[in-house]
Design a protein that fits this description.
The structure holds 3 protein chains of 3 kinds. In chain A, α5 (about 210-220) packs parallel to α9. The termini of chain A are far apart. Chain A folds into 2 domains: about 5-170, 3-Layer(aba) Sandwich (Rossmann fold), CATH 3.40.50.620; about 195-310, TPP-binding domain (Rossmann fold), CATH 3.40.50. Chain A is about 25% helix and about 30% strand. Chain A is elongated. Chain A has helices at about 15-25, 65-80, 90-95, 95-105, 210-220, 230-235, 265-270, 290, 300-310; strands spanning about 5, 10, 15, 30-40, 55-60, 85-90, 105-110, 115-120, 120-130, 135-140, 145-150, 165-170, 180-185, 200, 225-230, 255-260, 275-280, 295. Chain A contains 9 helices and 18 strands. In chain B, about 50% of the residues are buried. Chain B has a 9-stranded mixed beta sheet with strand order 9-8-7-10-6-1-4-5-11, sandwiched between helices. A two-stranded antiparallel ribbon of chain B has the order 2-3. By secondary structure, chain B is of the alpha/beta class. In chain B, about 30% of the residues lie in helices and about 30% in strands. By secondary structure, chain C is α/β, with parallel strands linked by helices. Chain C folds into 3 domains: about 5-360, Alpha-Beta Barrel (TIM Barrel); about 395-485 and about 630-680, Rossmann fold, CATH 3.40.50; about 490-630, FAD/NAD(P)-binding domain (3-Layer(bba) Sandwich). In chain C, the strands form 7 sheets. Chain C has an 8-stranded parallel β-barrel with strand order 3-4-6-9-10-11-12-13, surrounded by 6 helices. In chain C, α16 (about 540-550) links the parallel β20 and β21. The longest helix of chain C is centred in the N-terminal third of the chain and has 21 residues, at about 140-160. The chains are: A alpha/beta, B alpha/beta, C alpha/beta. Chains in contact: A-B, A-C, B-C. Chains A and B meet through α3, α4, β7, β9 and β10 of A and β2, α3, α4, β7 and β8 of B.
Chain lengths: ~300, ~250, ~725
Amino acid sequence: MSVLVIAEHTRGEVRDITYELITAGHALEGPLVVAAIGSDPGALDLNRAGVDEIIHVRVPQADFENDVYQQALEALIAERRPDHILVGFSVNSLGYAPAVATKLGLGFASDVFAIRREAGTTVATRAFYGSKVHAELDFPGQRAVMLMLRPTIWPAAGAASAPPSVTERNVTIAGSRARHKEFLDLPKADVDITGADFLLAIGRGIGDKENIALFERLSEKMAATLASSRPLVDAGWMPSSRQVGQSGKTVKPKVYLALGISGAVQHLAGMKASGTIIAVNKDPEAALFNAAHYGAVADLFEVARELEKLY
Amino acid sequence: MKIVVCVKLVKVVGDEVEFTADGLDVDSDYLEHALNEWDACAVEEALRIRERLGQAEVIAVTAGDKKSEEALRRCLAMGADRAVRVDSAVTDPISTANALASAVAPESPDLVLCGVQSSDSVQGSTGTALSELLGLPRVAVVKKLEWSGAGPATVHRELEGGLVDVVEVDTPAVLTIQTGINQPRYATLRAIKLAEQQEITLVTAPAGGDPAYRVRRMFTPPKGEGAQMLKGNPSEIASQIAVIIKERLK
Amino acid sequence: MARDPKYDILFEPIKLGPKTMKNRFYQIPHCNGFGSEKPLSQAFFRSMKAEGGYGACCTEYCSISPESDDTHRVSARLWDDDDVTNLSVMCEMLHGYGALAAAELWYGGPHAPCMESRCVPRAPSQIPSDFEHLTYPKQMDKDDIRAVQKMYVDAAKRARTAGFDIVYVYGSHSYLPQQFLTPYYNKRTDEYGGSFVNRARFWRETIEQVKDAVGHDTAIAVRMSCDMFMGEPGTQLERDCLPFVELVDDIVDVWDINVSGISEWGEDATPSRFYPSGRMLPWQHAVKKVSKKPVLGVGRFTNPDLMISAINGGQLDIIATCRPSIADPWLPRKIDEGRLDDIRECIGCNVCISRWEIGGPPVICTQNATAGEEYRRGWHPEIFTKAKNADNDVLVIGAGPAGMECAMILGKRGMRRVHLVEADDDMGGIMRWIPQLPGLGEWGRIVNYRKIQINKLKNVEFHANQRLDANAIKTYGAEIVIVATGGYWATDGLNGATHDVIAGADASLSWQLTPEQIMAEGKKVPGKKVLIVDNDGYFMGVSLAEKLAMEGKKVTIMSHQAHIAKYMDFTLESPNQNRKLHKLGVEIVVEHYPTKIEQGKVHAVHVFDEEAHDKVWEVDAVVLVTQRRSNEALYRELKDKVGFSELKKEGVNAVYRIGDCVAPRLIADAIFDGHRLAREIDSPNPEEPLPYKRERRVINMAGAKAEIDEHMAAIHAGVR
């Protein structure tokens, strides 16, 4: 048995998901092989604990292209016959992994956030219906299974004590029908809160209108976009364009840092799909602590001042 | 010139969830339905291409039961010319792609647009799987599309963190469309009424191959112990928060 | 959905003397314009709240004698057995829902001018009312005191006969018992004046006598103001109220605690403009600390979390509401059923109160178009019949207050499809910028509530950024078209004072502006000196004055009337609004109207100056708040240019219009207009409101015949 992990990299940098895939692969039997596909795979840092072998798959293309990765992966699967193939649930992988699974008739599931082996069966867990419901899946039939794993669930694998063996391999690419031309770094325009990756939201707990300036400053330093729960908008202290909630905007940032928000149902409805919710509130009974991923019962002004020092 | 758009009628679960007797899916009494948000953008993009090129046939295709025709009617009301339903149960992305292919392939489309993902399954994979069955090139997560109607198209792929990858893709091709590429037009009441009366072609699904996965059980996740509480004085709490933020923004 | 367990405390019963209330939701005494003379309107209005879960509902202030007659304002009355019969209907209906009924027994003293009864009110000292300035009372001697106390006792007995479970000896708002307690009103030197014990004597004796008469099976409530904000002469918490609580706690079954006197009772019924919810909790808490009996009180409570915090924090035992119960009589039920986002929250605009202050009209509510219509139009705020013509599609053009309300109710009435279309990028219309005026943030709840409800309605779609012209409407595919395009502020100074434009008024110039130019379009007010021409008489002029003064402008507000923002007297917002303007240094010019506007100058004359001397104000900018106009253009195009018969050919069977685009009006009335059309969309002629029931005496000709014949005979006999 073996596990094949496909490394992800952009512009010469290995993406964190790669290290997370390695950790996830530890739960599965057999040697863990990491394949890096590109024109200079040797430059990528893949020395991580638990990696038994690194395959440098040399292709003409320096940057990701669907057909290149598809052909490279198909070649690797034909040669190595892994039981499990792990890729990240990422934009790149969406462009080729399902195609490989379809072509080769593999077991397949995406956005998986838990894996286990049970009596010789692989069980993967994913969500349905907007995360309201979880499902356990398995893969009947004797075939290899490809799983696309959700980022930031598994911790990144640490450094390897001894470097894994490296295999060099070239793959001839028959043709790439979708070709990378260039990258564009789009400037961060004036985001409306629904487009922001990081929201700093303030609520009734901030007390007085005069205190808003403190949090405006903090949000600037932290490179967060300032948002608000309804009471501050009701009071006329914050514009309604910043309001998160059922009658305001629905947001799904990567990080939602809530200061002094109790977590009324109407507010939750607008932000509970956020990637990571961190709540700071003086009230240990604040409802938001039930929905948050991280919480702290503390004076939010003191925490805010300390945060400011760190940025 | 034919542009096929693959769409899905998604299920929206309210706050109360009940499962079917076998525990393998949500009881549909507790569901609302809507045209998948990503697919609406795909339809809109197809209509805009038609408007830019002056002429093209936009065909909406779905794989599902009779109720899924609601999604097709919305596409017709928006302005699609024709609609086809492949009669099949909604399952994993590869099986769905198989069903769709049986209706899409005979059309020999010049372009196939799908939404990046559906809001209820979030597999993100059906469009790419379909492209393989059709033997067509594909680009996933397209935020911008420029195409003269012949030859390669230039598309923008939206990567994590906001980076954009400009890709040249040979056509015919399958593109999965990301929300934000456009603002889907709404349909007037007249268009909705006309769409109600339009004929929808029915196609039987091909015999199924192996499903990509099997659902063993479905369950509501435990409420959880709630938040992981950070301890310490404000300075320590702030440090911990900063570390978490840095992690999660990558 | 289920009740969140943290709200369980609100649903626990509580004993009030010999009675038990089934939960902690209490509708405090408040006026509705119905009194004892519109008994069905009264009963249907109150019982709607009991249906909505309130554990107890009260009458408005209930007069115990013709000497306590507040005409033109409408109070309830318990003067005789016929009043008992009329008010018994309310009691029966409340009991049907398991709610208690309370009568707030009231004697107004000099504050009640007796304009119907022509009696003379009695009072502790002979000083005219600070509220009704021409009314002098008779100074009470001991016989008067006994006589008035007997009125309380007799009224309490009538109340008990009518079916009331709770009777008040009501003093708040500077009514008689509190007048005795308060040095401002009580200059007596006998045993009913002077020391605390003496000043408390009248109230204590009255409570004792009422308790003796009915207290064995009727709960005794005392409503007391714990601070009149008048310094030494006024009622004070520590000097007067807490000792009074200790003095009579044993014989009182429930305390109803508020603050303020009568002349500024907006300190009690706080407008959201000036105070947040729960304003009186500190006083309520103080009383709760010294009393062993249940304490209730209001505070514009709309948020269940604040409610449980008040109870859990030992500040109140019972949550009383007035205005939130008008805005949503089903508040308790919605909390019970976990439907918090269905709660229609009070916005604290006090338009309901304004109707009572004006005297005569029935209560209305900005948020709840059905308030006051429960009986006379049979409207239920939560239950809607399916429209008989539901098999129709409706296009509503304009998502302001009228359009949103209409689309929402049409949706609830099951119309097949409703498309609400708006030219701007979101719902709200004028309510998108009005809540941005100083202090009006809570008024945004008008939009919040409707947005949430419309999002929930599967048969209603909202489309923003669509400016439909007549042609697009014609071919839209709707059988029913409803135009709700709102209004705009006149740009030429047209006004109700002169019925003419103002020479030189032109808001297309950079230095002249209208309210929406400033608030919605972001037009900058140039320079420093701004003159606001205010012929509106409600909040727009003074709110803009406040806003511009806070931004550093030197503001003058000019009105032809005797004082500015007259309607705000009725909403109780005047005193604090005037204090604000005074603090901000706003120059208030009354009894003047502008004759000419030119760059840098506004010319005006005093309204009573027969020689019309020209007075000049130097200005950098002029804001025209003279009057509003309807945005009629679209409707006129549909009716006059395209024509209804053309529209019919395209399948449009009916075109209606609602709200400000018909005639500008209060937000409450625009919402009412949209609501009414939706309720009556399936009547034979929806454009015309259906007749409503009027509670009036219709003479029984057969029964009156004898009386009339006798009179006619006397005329013929030459005796008359």
